[in-house]
Write a structure and sequence with these properties.
alpha+beta; 2 domains; seven-stranded antiparallel beta sheet; 2 helices
Amino acid sequence: MNRLSGFLKISCRHLLVFILVSLAACTQLRPDFEEPGVKVVSLRALPAEGMEQKFAIGLRITNPNTFALNLVGMSYHLKIQGYDLLDGVANDIPEIPAFADIPLQVTASVNMLNSLRFIRTLLTEPQDRIEYELGVKLALNSRLFPTLHLAEKGEISLTR
């Protein structure tokens, strides 16, 4: 029994060393990786389908890396004045070549209750500007970087 516990201690140490070395090696595989950028370039309402309203969101995704990004899919949400108003998913995303950007149009559904809350806030508390936040999760076809979380924040002036 004593011999078995000694063997387990040694095996656990070897396993721990192996894990630490493996993690260190993974960080060295792509030390030059830079996070892609995402921007909202357009937003337009699509024809309503019954009670459901959808929007087309125009995005521009930028790849600042020396290698192409092969995307499997993405999920996204758009907050306006802190209200989650639009969200959606897409799985027909083209590869983004190295040092390039691509325009991409995705469809998002409206969160009706939050939209009503947002409209109520605008009517009761008029604003000079509206803050927005786009959150995007990119699913890469890569074991090193399976998902990336990106965000863009900004504001839109309501005055001239």
